[in-house]
Predict the 3D structure of the following.
Amino acid sequence: MHLECIECGEKFEIGKRFYTCPKCGGLLEVEFELQELQHGIDKKRLRTEAPGVWKYRAFLPVLDEKKVVSLDEGGTPLYRCDRLAMKIGVRELYVKFEGANPTGSFKDRGMTVGVTKAMEFGVNTVACASTGNTAASLSAYAAKAGLKCLILLPSKKVALGKLAQAMIYGAKIISIKGNFDEALSFIRRICEEREDIYLLNSLNPFRPQGQKTIGFEIADQLGWKTPDRVVVPMGNCANIWAIYKGFFEFEAVGLIKGIPTMTGIQAEGAKPIVDAIKCGSEKFVPVRQPETIATAIRIGNPVNGPKAIRAIKRSNGTAESVSDEEIIAAQKMLASLEGIGVEPASASTIAGLKKLVEKGVVDKDERVVCVATGNILKDPEEAIEISQKPIEVEAKYDAILKHLG
Ligand code: F0G
């Protein structure tokens, strides 16, 4: 395996600690010798071992397995959602519930690999900017590894559950009076200037490698079959690329046939990639003041935008935006019809799918997987805000009976 720039194609040794291409500044990707990998895979073991990120270790860029830092991430449920499918109007609908990961979001899949690389590089501090989930996940894995953790958060709109997690795991948290995009540019600068601090935002080429396992696991859980479509919320835009890459590699080594149509969803107030896809452009125009109730994806200048655009184009996919009202309605629908509690960013996939079915873009005969990236408990304030309030009564039996209906 080696690192490769997605822009200029320059290749670098896998042991190099680069975040972006030192030649042109482009995004880096880990590439495997897929033919070699194909011969090395133990297909029988892959078919019998229980799911989990490290089941797919042959596809992960780790050099020293003794250094692996894990909280048993991955192996999340793939719920078949027949009631929701009927409501939306598709044949077969699944929700990949990433909220079941150790810190309640898909970030744990990336962090187990990213923090393992930090151990391989021998740093003493890991760092990130975050809308909340990356912070919660990184601080947990840093704690497990015995590393220091530095986090930059936008001062407004970090969901309470995420903040509580990062705080209790013991990270040093600096809250800036600005948005995520600004926080990310500051932390990048710090990590470029300081050798001892290792950047674990998804710009880091190793972290999304762990997130590839969402694609692996979906195929695995569907009996080594590719769904027609996978719907993913897009914020900083690494996850949609990572999932695409998972399917691409599984197909390349002959484990599955075909790659699903990758479908990215953004909120109306933060949709630079949707705009680029809709006008057929390879480049996107950043949104200066991103705004949405889905605070996890409140991002105007996604660093991995070029990877998301590639994933969508190469898989013949599409992108759609949804309003906050549509997100809330979808969040309630998923909770009340299927018993699946997700945070608003995750519900955007259900809202986006509904819209695309109504527009006739998604065929009613499709087998679709929506990736629910984060748990409902991440953003309890929003959940309370949008739900019916508890009824308060006197502590008397009759007073309660009156409300039974
Ligand atoms: N869903 C949730 C729940 C997220 O927390 C994020 C990103 C995304 C979707 C989007 O994923 O960035 O790979 O496109 N959250 C980051 C954070 C930005 O800081 O926690 P992406």
Remarks:
- The longest strand covers residues 148-154.
- The pocket of F0G is lined by residues 105, 130-134, 202, 233-239, 296-297, 343, 345-346, 373-374 (CB under 6 Å).
